[in-house]
Design brief:
- The protein is an alpha/beta fold.
- It folds into three domains: about 5-110, no CATH class; about 120-185, no CATH class; about 210-375, Ribonuclease H-like superfamily/Ribonuclease H (Nucleotidyltransferase, domain 5, 2-Layer Sandwich).
- It is built from 15 helices and seven strands.
- The strands form two sheets. Strands 5-4-3-6-7 form a five-stranded mixed sheet, sandwiched between helices.
- The longest helix has 13 residues, at about 265-275.
- The radius of gyration is 33 Å and the shape is elongated.
- About 25% of the residues are buried.
């Protein structure tokens, strides 16, 4: 119906109907008793759309402006504007389009905002009973959540993730599942085991690590040779390994022979033997990840006077040259093979072949040529 037809059916003036339709009462105020603000003056950065933003959206939609244009005017993402229109708009009579009324949209947003919200499990739609019954059968929360998706593929209200089940069991005050059901979990814990923050964990090595943030700036710009990156490539069933060293400025490669394993003592001895063969001006620093094989890094530094810097956890890009070289080495030492069968001579031949291969990052010079130039200079 049109506004006039609807007002005649209800028995009110069409102006009153218009006020109702826009979420305003007879006093000209919002239903939430907030005064109307039509000014678009910024009131400070806000994570949420304000009432003035919604008025602007409605005005520009009436002028046939695009969503991207409106987003640019409000300094928002286009997806934010599109989501706002679809979530808080009003379906039209034929349900083929959405009418956006700013005051009604503001009211919907305010109703949706209060926290905490009721948990999905406690809403009485059969989800709680399903989960409790399967916990009694000693199913894991992840198995239960997968079973829910299989049993109710067309009912999204019955779909949860396993973290929701754990919170319903462990978080105090929710009471969505019986606390005694925690005994059915495989851990049998009645409360969650707290995880230590990174700064509270026990030191990884006996001797404290020096982190990469303290490495000299000359190592970062790759202008001075002598700064190395190191790592291990691991063989079949973690039973064998080869050590790799890459010089940062020239990408020159050296390989460590570890036929008897990769214990901290064996890795230390192999690094010391390799470093002692280098000239003094190529022994400036070594960067490694936090692998357990470097547990004796302090002893290596004392023997060679080469400081060792450690990367941050899960940050392989901090040793980018070494990671790239390890990928090249897999051409010679495929994954899932026994690396202990390779002799010292074979490792030297592989390193020489890589060092004689032109590299784009070096202007198509080889690592051996670049190292020779730097040493001559």
């Amino acid at each position: 119906m049109t506004n006039t037809e609807a007002c005649e059916r209800v028995g009110i003036n069409r102006r009153t109907g218009k006020r109702w339709r826009h979420g305003r009462g007879a006093s000209g105020r919002f239903k939430a008793t907030k005064p109307l603000r039509r000014s678009l003056a910024p009131m400070g950065p806000s994570r949420y759309l304000r009432e003035s933003d919604r008025i602007h959206i409605a005005d520009r939609l009436r002028e046939k402006a695009s969503i991207r244009t409106i987003a640019a005017e409000l300094g928002r993402s286009p997806s934010t504007i599109s989501r706002e229109i679809h979530r808080n708009g009003t379906p039209a009579h034929d349900s083929s389009r959405i009418t956006y009324r700013p005051h009604a949209a503001q009211a919907r947003a305010e109703e949706r905002r209060p926290r905490p919200k009721p948990g999905k499990i406690g809403q009485g739609n059969g989800l709680r009973d399903f989960i409790q019954n399967h916990l009694d059968l000693r199913w894991s929360p992840e198995q239960i959540c997968q079973a829910l998706r299989t049993a109710f593929p067309d009912r999204p209200e019955m779909h949860v993730v396993h973290e929701t089940v754990y919170q319903a069991l462990y978080v105090q005050g929710r009471g969505e599942l019986r606390r005694e059901l925690t005994r059915a979990l495989r851990t049998g814990r009645v409360r969650r085991k707290p995880r230590r923050q990174a700064q509270q964990r026990q030191p990884r090595f006996r001797d404290p690590m020096v982190m990469i943030s303290e490495r000299p700036a000359e190592a970062d710009d790759r202008a001075v040779p002598g700064h190395w990156e190191g790592d291990l490539i691991i063989g079949k069933d973690n039973g064998s390994a080869i050590g790799t060293l890459v010089e940062r400025s020239t990408r020159y490669v050296m390989l460590l022979h570890l036929p008897d394993g990769r214990s901290t003592e064996l890795v230390r001895d192999a690094l010391v033997a390799t470093a002692q063969a280098l000239p003094a001006h190529l022994k400036r620093s070594l960067t490694w990840d936090q692998g357990v094989e470097m547990g004796r890094h302090r002893e290596f530094t004392v023997a060679t006077e080469i400081p060792v810097y450690f990367c941050d956890p899960a940050s392989p890009w901090q040793r980018g040259s070494n990671e790239n070289t390890n990928g090249l080495l897999r051409q010679y030492f495929p994954k899932g093979t026994d690396l202990s069968v390779h002799t010292r001579e074979h490792l030297d031949a592989v390193a020489a072949e890589l060092n004689g291969r032109p590299r784009k990052t070096l202007g198509w010079e080889t690592p051996a040529e670049r190292l020779h130039k730097l040493l001559a200079a």
